[in-house]
Amino acid sequence: MIQMSVVGGELERNLDHAVARIAEAAAEGAELLLLPECLDLGWTHPSAREQAGTIPGGWAYERLREAAVQHQVYVCAGLSEAHEEQVYNAAVFISPRGELLLTHRKLNELDIAHDLYAQGDRLQVAETPWGRIGVMICADAFAKDHMLARSLGYMGADVILSPSSWAVPPEHDPEKTPYGAEWRKAYGRVAKEFSLPIFGVSNVGAVSAGPWQGWNCIGCSLAVDAEGSPQVQGSYGVEAEEILYTQVDLLPRPARGNCWASR
């Protein structure tokens, strides 16, 4: 879980940093790496209109693909995607062979971001040696009745990965209002219902442009286990860069939650 700094609009800097952190995590034995939402340019940064790249083929995507192949790891990361004169808030899941296993376009985007990002239109899961991996992005977890996360469970996901960008206003006081309860509740409910772990990774750093200019991304990346209990919680802070490691123990398919019982 790569909780990394993202600097708005600094495409080359952000990708260099992401690739370096991928190398660091791979050297520690990580096999599947999750990175933040819009790690290339920053969530809602207006530079996406000019600098978003295609998936596949764009420079940012190709940097991640090359890193996955070089270090023989799976990589899930959020990118700004240019497609047919639209910009999407997207996430990619790349195999150690450099295969694009899926592209997800955020469905439950906040209203303030609709001026920049076009609407996604589908959910997907990808087969891996560990089972099926489902991908959603940040506020997808808060869709009404958790319908997007629950849909991934009904689609047979064994794990859900969620590139995220969690921000607070500059006056936020973590002592008075600790961050993360809403994510623990949302993730925990679906994880327990479907017996699947859920992972969300946020970036850190000041938001320099866009509707949340002046806010701070503060990490607090979160993993909940298949019983819905918090397993790993990242540090809070605008400079709280870190790599979090955890072991995922998947349950046998016949023993898993309601999505299997319903078939």
Describe this structure in words.
With about 260 residues, the chain is α+β, with helices and mostly antiparallel strands. The chain has one domain: Nitrilase/N-carbamoyl-D-aminoacid amidohydrolase, CATH 3.60.110. Helix content is about 25%, strand content about 25%. The protein has six helices and 15 strands. The protein has helices spanning about 10-25, 50, 60-70, 145-155, 180-195, 260, and strands spanning about 1-5, 30-35, 75-85, 85-95, 100-105, 125-130, 130-135, 160-165, 165-170, 200, 205, 215-220, 220-225, 230-235, 240-245. It has a six-stranded mixed β-sheet, with helices on one face. A hairpin with a 5-residue loop joins β13 (about 220-225) and β14 (about 230-235). α1 (about 10-25) packs parallel to α3. The two termini are about 35 Å apart. Residues about 255-263 have low confidence and may be disordered.
The structure class reads alpha+beta
Q: Helix proportion of residues, in percent?
A: 10-25%
Total tally of structural domains = 1
User: Secondary-structure element sequence?
Assistant: EHEHHEEEEEHEEHEEEEEEH
The profile of the biggest β sheet is: 6 strands, mixed
Ends: how far apart? 33 Å
Q: Which CATH C-level class is it?
A: Alpha Beta
**Any idea of the CATH topology?**
Nitrilase/N-carbamoyl-D-aminoacid amidohydrolase
Low-confidence stretches: 253-263
The number of helical runs is: 6
Work out the radius of gyration. 17 Å
Give me the count of strands: 15
Provide the spatial order of strands within the biggest beta sheet.
6-7-8-10-13-14
Rounded mean pLDDT score: 94
Strand content: 25-35%
Which CATH architecture? 4-Layer Sandwich
